[in-house]
Write a structure and sequence with these properties.
Largest sheet: 5 strands, mixed
Number of domains: 1
Number of helices: 2
Distance between the termini: 36 Å
Radius of gyration: 15 Å
Number of strands: 7
Strand content: 25-35%
Length: about 100
Amino acid sequence: VPGTFGWDDVGDFASVGRLNSAREVDDVTVIGEGARVFTENASGVVVSDTKRVIALIGIKDVVIVDTGDALLVTTKQHAQRVKGAVDALKASGDTDVL
């Protein structure tokens, strides 16, 4: 079916940053109401639902997902590999954070 609309395969958190309402702090896309992010010479995506301060200094293309019980830090290049971490957590019985 032909169409004139944008498409993004939401396969990782870098995609989420492109699709959700977010604010920009320098070159960092910040998602999360009340997210407290400081940047200096940094770029990437931060998704946070905590009040914890996240400071990014001199780091490029980072993806940070901060929740009450887990913290994910990776790069946009490796963001598609999160499934491997999820599988490892399941195998070790740490399913309470999934």
